[in-house]
What does this fold into?
Amino acid sequence: MIDVAYIALGSNVGDRDAHLARARAALAALPDSRVVAESSIEETAPLGPIDQPSFLNQMVAVETSLAPRDLLGHLHAIEAREGRVRRARWGPRTLDLDIVCFDRQTVDDPDLHVPHREIPNRPFWQRELDELRRRG
It folds into this structure.
């Protein structure tokens, strides 16, 4: 099934612009997928209890036939290529890629929730989703 996945990109360590650019290129190269829209990039304050630099955030709409779990595996591989190390929850990171939602699919597994449970707590995701959906 072909669907549109909305993927959040975030970076607050190193060359944030370069991390996002390489992530967009990697998303464009995913198998059985194509990028159909990109939101504006915005700088946001970090969430959570850890003192850290501000994030650059963006959302990308990807038309894909990848299943949500397969897509997540590709996203984790892209993060790893950008030097992502999973230490502290809500901690600083070179690159964070999250499946925010799909147009038609949902998932409610212990380690994957689509739509993402944090959408109501992230107004920048809501703005970026609105921007992408207005374009579609």
In short: The mean pLDDT is 94.
